[in-house]
Write a structure and sequence with these properties.
globular; 4-stranded parallel beta sheet; single chain; 4 strands
Length: 158
Amino acid sequence: MTAAVTVSTYNDPRGLNLCLAGLARQRVAPKEIVVADDGSTGATRALVESWRARLECPLLHVWHEDQGNRKGAIANKAVLKTDSDQLLFIDGDSIPHSNWVADHMDAAAHGDVRCGRRVKLGPMLSEKVTDEWVTRGRLESFIGPVVRSAIQGDTKRL
């Protein structure tokens, strides 16, 4: 069984960079990643290009002109570019846990569907997060910056 990850984005290269850093460290790599770009500027295209050689799987970029919020339409176009058995969707401002793909694939193998929950990082912590933090798994550490941020009242829904 194979999985394709569709990443929805719009003019948030920093967030997309962190999301791709999270996808690059998956315990089980997806077969392919498709960035569904709802009309971003050239900075997003350049970021996607820079990530192509850094991933274990193909990275595609599907873009359409910015005509307002058409996230659903570009996600549909992205799905048409895949040939995987399973489709996983994530927003480009989300950082997946290193077991994210594996957990979804395990659920699918048992005939289940998963809908993820997320931790909403607070503004103080969000501005500090780097791709190095993501690559090193700092956000996944039980005793780490996310828990400290929650104790301080910055991060919600821990």
